[in-house]
Design brief:
single chain, globular, alpha/beta
Length: about 325
């Protein structure tokens, strides 16, 4: 009888410990269906799960991967439902991650994009600020929101140059790594939001490294926890931004890419005004060039190639041209 009581006490204690365990709740969405960037999104999602598992181990948190959605499941419905169902304790951590296409409207009041998920129709897009607002209502100790997508849709994926890939070097585990992880995660409070490019910029990726910002972000977390750079979010994000831009400038398209972030405790900075952007009127020559672009009977590849021809024919090389959706405000290319 005493033995049975003792076993019962031990079981009750274990259940109590488990119920009180601190948790990292991962909400991950990857548009792995996209023909151009699907493979890179798979790389990103695999990296996220490996990295968060390691973080959880170092800070003694359980990690919940119950809300990982790829392929057909990368949907607005699953995104909203997973946030609604999410239950957090006050010392939990929320990690939200999205990799895929992104857009913005000229009417958006903050610098962060709308997430396209798996869709091409804008009524299914979800604004990042809506997601952040909903997650903050869960009252977790620390909420980290990370998106690797364009602030306008990117139609091309360029490989990273070999010189950048080979410059990573070897990393090592510092004796203080676990404490440094705790400084960044379990001892951090508030909300951190970071996205891979500023307004009007595309976000680069390649099938080997995935999204360049995601790659740079975790590379610099590794550098921080191993004592190679200052162990602070400001330093990590600044260094990740520099690395991302260097990779992008060394890619074949040489596009600048400057990630944008908002540190815990800081208010969101309003988006810059678009009133001074000059709109070029459509003349007869341009109208003829646009016709094959909007003809849905042609393949997507052909229409995109004709779009590039139109840009080269009608605009100077230093012109900044925005392509908008039929509502006249949603920017789908830049």
């Amino acid at each position: 009888m005493k033995t049975n009581k003792l076993i019962g006490v031990i079981v009750a204690l274990l259940i109590s410990i488990n119920c009180g365990a601190q948790t990292i709740h991962v909400l991950g969405f990857a548009n792995t269906l996209d023909q151009r960037i699907g493979q890179t999104c798979e790389v990103d999602m695999a990296r996220i799960q490996n990295e968060i598992a390691e973080i959880g181990m170092n800070i003694n948190y359980e990690v919940s991967f119950d809300n990982i959605f790829t392929g057909e499941d990368c949907s607005k419905e699953n995104l909203l439902n997973s946030i609604e169902r999410l239950k957090c304790k006050s010392n939990d951590i929320i990690f939200f991650y999205y990799t895929g296409h992104g857009v913005r409207s000229s009417q958006d009041s903050d610098p962060f994009p709308q997430l396209c998920l798996k869709y091409k129709t804008e009524n299914n897009f979800v604004a990042l600020h809506t997601i952040v607002s909903s997650l903050e209502k869960k009252n977790a100790q620390f909420t980290l929101v990370l998106t690797d997508c364009c602030n306008s849709i990117s139609t091309a994926v360029s490989p990273k140059s070999a010189s950048i890939i080979n410059s990573k070097g070897m990393t090592y585990r510092s004796d203080n790594a676990s404490e440094n992880y705790k400084t960044l995660f379990s001892k951090q409070k508030g909300t951190l939001v970071a996205t891979s490019s500023k307004i009007g910029q595309v976000s680069g990726c390649d099938p080997f490294n995935g999204g360049w910002f995601t790659f740079s972000f975790f590379e610099n977390i590794a550098q921080a926890v191993n004592g190679n750079i200052t162990n602070s979010w400001e330093t990590i994000l600044s260094q990740a931004g520099n690395m991302t831009n260097e990779i992008s400038l060394n890619s074949p398209n040489h596009n600048p890419q400057n990630p944008y972030y908002n540190l815990p405790g800081n208010a969101l900075v309003p988006a810059p005004s678009t009133q001074n952007i000059q709109v070029v009127s459509v003349d007869n020559e341009l109208e003829e060039l646009i016709k094959p672009i909007i003809n849905l009977e042609y393949s997507t590849e052909y229409r995109l190639s004709k779009a590039k021809d139109a840009l080269k024919s009608c605009f100077a090389s230093n012109s900044k041209v925005s392509t908008v959706a039929r509502n006249g405000s949603t920017i789908i290319d830049y």
